[in-house]
């Protein structure tokens, strides 16, 4: 759960992004060649010129805010990597147990993309008494095609 400071910083960043979009919309086609380091009309050049003008008008972000934003980004990246590693471990366990299951009962990896489904399939694959339930479960997960 983000703290009050992080929420405030994110709100400020959202406001900066809104201002930037309005400025880009206003300055989109009126840039002179001096403002444009790239060929005339290039999207990257227009965007860079808009950013330059925008940052001249805004007050600088404090080092504390930069530190908090980086810390929040690093925490989210670490959480994402941890979740991905856990999902990979679950998938490797499912594959290892699936080798022991007869072919007609093997789970279809396309049918369990979510974490809850992976955990359910893992529990079923570990228990030989539930092997016959795996194909039925996979059929429930298949979405009917729309007409």
Would you mind describing this structure in some detail?
This protein is mainly α and 147 residues long. It has a domain at 49-142. It is 65% helix and 0% strand. The chain has five helices and no strands. It has helices spanning 4-27, 43-57, 63-98, 115-126, 133-141. Helix 1 crosses helix 2 (43-57), helix 1 packs across helix 3 (63-98) and helix 3 (63-98) packs parallel to helix 4. The longest helix has 36 residues, at 63-98. It is elongated, with a radius of gyration of 26 Å. The relative contact order is 0.07.
Spans of at least 5 consecutive residues whose pLDDT stays below 50 are 29-33
Q: Major sheet, described briefly?
A: none
Sheet/helix structural class? mainly alpha
Q: What's the SSE pattern?
A: HHHHH
Separation of termini?
42 Å
β content, as a range? Answer: under 5%
How many helices? The count is: 5
User: What does the radius of gyration come to?
Assistant: 26 Å
Q: Tell me, what's the shape?
A: elongated
Helical content class: 55-70%
Mean pLDDT: 73
Number of DSSP E strands = 0
Brief digest:
The protein has five helices and no strands. By secondary structure, the protein is an all-alpha fold. Helix 1 packs across helix 2, helix 1 crosses helix 3 (63-98) and helix 3 (63-98) runs parallel beside helix 4 (115-126).
SSE order and pairing:
Elements: H1 4-27, H2 43-57, H3 63-98, H4 115-126, H5 133-141
Helix pairs in contact: 1-2, 1-3, 3-4
């Amino acid at each position: 759960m983000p703290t009050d400071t992080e929420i405030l910083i994110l709100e400020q960043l959202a406001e900066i992004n809104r201002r930037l979009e309005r400025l880009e919309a206003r300055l989109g086609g009126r840039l002179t060649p001096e403002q444009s380091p790239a060929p005339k009309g290039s999207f990257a050049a227009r965007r860079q010129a808009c950013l330059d003008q925008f940052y001249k008008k805004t007050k600088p972000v404090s080092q504390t805010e930069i530190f908090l934003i980086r810390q929040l980004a690093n925490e989210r990246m670490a959480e994402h990597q941890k979740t991905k590693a856990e999902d990979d471990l679950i998938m490797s366990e499912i594959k290892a147990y699936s080798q022991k299951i007869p072919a007609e009962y093997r789970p279809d990896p396309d049918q369990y993309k979510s974490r809850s489904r992976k955990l359910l399939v893992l529990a079923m694959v570990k228990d030989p008494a539930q092997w016959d339930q795996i194909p039925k479960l996979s059929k429930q997960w298949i979405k009917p095609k729309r007409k």
